[in-house]
Design a protein that fits this description.
Number of strands: 6
CATH topology: Phenylalanine Hydroxylase
Oligomer: single chain
Shape: globular
CATH class: Mainly Alpha
Radius of gyration: 20 Å
Bound molecules: fe (ii) ion
Number of domains: 1
Order of helices and strands: HHHHHEHEHHHEEHHEHEHH
Number of helices: 14
Length: 315
């Protein structure tokens, strides 16, 4: 909140404030939106600095050859369909003009973290919560926060595929089912315990599929990446498919929902699906398991579930 100007601050301060652009963790615009409690926001495109565009250009240029080699075919088709400019941070409105007619999805600008239920509910409405800040151009590799490169270049190309888009909507259905299931529990402690387990299961499943999933290539070219965490990481994309230190297994629902993960290093364990129809069927199964009570006692461990996430399901 430190950047929110006092009333009557000179106009020059207002202008200088925005010269820093929309850089991850350094954007006064985002701090203001968060201070106002605006989870959903807009993309003030003129605030991007030349350095922000330079970061996008560098990220895009170094990923292109790796996408051609390691990305699944649906991603490649999506990149082409979205007509992303390799040299400038994308305007979400323009991205949506290409995306929306294909699957009904659109990128929805957000000011930061969206509590779990609200995130999944956006997916159900075919809206993808999208970060508008971009990492610094001199720190292109790991950052713990998502940025617009991760969200638009990593996630959104897959949203042009109908089966994948329907899978995201199914995740949203799952969240609604979870909310209904736990709201019927009278004992508060038991309600929180079960909800924590269900959210953990959903978060793990999302992580090992939408964020870090691998897929058998339909053209017989072996495993390819479809997870956005891989497709937006210059180092990890190649590592995930080339390194002998990575374990790669066909996905098993019972394994994934009980498998913890850590976010601050390359993933040592990845799971593959056969197709997005296969992925859809797994989310459908996840929902059935939820209704059968099979997500009520998953293995403890990462990820943690915040009070904010719990409240979002109970609110
Ligand atoms: Fe992501």
């Amino acid at each position: 909140m430190k950047s929110v100007p006092s009333k009557g601050a000179p106009l020059r301060d207002e202008i200088d404030k925005f010269k820093v652009g929309l850089t991850t963790t350094q954007a006064p615009f985002i701090e203001e939106q968060q201070a106002k409690g605006n989870l959903y926001t807009f993309q003030p495109y003129d605030l991007y600095s030349e350095e922000n565009h330079e970061a996008w250009r560098k990220l895009f240029a170094r990923m292109e050859p790796r996408w051609k080699r390691y990305a699944n075919e649906h991603f490649q088709a999506g990149i082409d369909a979205l007509c992303l400019d390799p040299n400038r941070v994308p305007k979400l409105e323009e991205v949506n003009e290409f995306l929306n007619p294909l699957t009904g999805f659109s990128a929805k600008p957000v000011s930061g973290y969206i509590p779990a239920f609200l995130f999944f509910d956006c997916l159900r409405n075919r809206e993808f919560p999208t970060t508008i800040t971009i990492r610094s151009s001199d720190k292109l590799d790991y950052l713990p926060e998502p940025d617009i490169f991760h969200d638009i270049a990593g996630h959104v190309p897959m949203h042009t595929d109908r089966a994948f888009a329907d899978t995201l909507v199914k995740f949203g259905d799952c969240a609604h089912t979870a909310a209904e299931v736990v709201r019927s529990i009278k004992d508060h402690d038991e309600q929180i315990r079960r909800l924590t387990s269900i959210i953990k299961a959903m978060a793990r499943f999302f992580w090992f599929t939408v964020e870090f999933g691998l897929m058998n290539d339909s053209r017989g070219q072996g495993l390819k990446a479809y997870g956005s965490g891989l497709l937006s990481s210059f180092g990890e994309l190649a590592h995930s498919l080339e390194s002998p230190t990575v374990q790669r297994f066909p996905i098993q629902l019972e394994w994934v929902i009980n498998q913890g993960f850590e976010i601050d290093h390359y993933q040592p364990l990845l799971f593959s699906v056969d197709s997005f129809d296969h992925l859809f069927s797994l989310v459908d199964e996840l929902e059935k398991w939820m209704l059968d009570g099979r997500l009520n006692n998953v293995a403890p461990g990462e990820p943690g579930v915040s009070q904010e996430d719990l409240d979002s399901f109970l609110g």
